[in-house]
Design a protein that fits this description.
By secondary structure, the chain is an alpha/beta fold. Helix content is about 45%, strand content about 15%. It is globular, with a radius of gyration of 17 Å.
């Protein structure tokens, strides 16, 4: 079983669809904790470390053989739980960051300010000292649309920001919820999003461990 830690319920159908398409036999357990992002935005990701650990420990106790954190803001905190939990804990944006780090001119676009620093750090980690030119952009007002339930308005606002990116080799969508904006932009710069690659990595990790491996 793969447990997915979300900070918004909008991710559930996205990852259910990915499972149905590529891993139909994989059992998913969705854990939605919007409060974790709210607190991390206000106090910093480390403030929710104990809470994240407790949520993930509960999932492992219920049979999860791997965990995927779909929130970029708390991804590093989630990953740090793996040694104690004894199962793989993956952050959804790491495969995307690895792909981005193969380029030199990288633009990270986010709708939440608290996501910018973790994504920047992750890409630089994946670059492993290679020379990269990385810049970040916050889409002002987009997150307010997301919180209001205006999903189309949210994606259109993100796509508008992507339209303005020209001098780059690749654009990184810092949050999984932004993935739909890739199909709405007129920018010729390739756009990377995290759900597909992140889910495939997590599904492989879950499949690689028998159900009683964490016992």
């Amino acid at each position: 079983m793969l447990a997915l830690l979300h900070t918004s319920p909008v991710h559930i159908p996205v990852f259910d669809a990915l499972r149905d398409s590529d891993h139909p036999s994989l059992e998913l357990r969705h854990l939605v904790h919007a409060d974790l992002l709210a607190r991390a935005m206000a106090e910093g990701p480390q403030a929710v470390a104990a809470a994240v650990d407790a949520v993930l420990a509960g999932a492992v106790a219920e049979g999860a053989t791997a965990v995927l954190c779909t929130c970029s803001t708390i991804g590093r905190v989630a990953e740090a739980c793996a040694p104690r939990l004894g199962v793989p804990v993956l952050r959804v944006d790491r495969p995307m960051a690895a792909a981005a780090a193969r380029h030199r001119r990288i633009v990270v676009v986010a709708a939440v300010r608290s996501t910018l620093a973790p994504t920047d750090a992750l890409i630089r980690e994946e670059a492993a000292g290679r020379d990269i030119d990385l810049s970040t952009r916050l889409v002002e007002g987009a997150w307010e649309r997301f919180e209001a339930g205006d999903h189309d308005g949210y994606l259109d606002a993100v796509a508008g920001a992507l339209d303005d990116v020209r001098d780059a080799d690749v654009i990184v969508l810092a949050q999984a919820s932004m993935a739909g904006a890739a199909g709405r932009t007129s920018s010729a710069v390739p756009v990377l999003s995290s759900p597909g690659t992140g889910f495939r990595a997590a599904a492989a990790a879950a499949d690689a461990r028998p159900a009683d491996a964490s016992a």
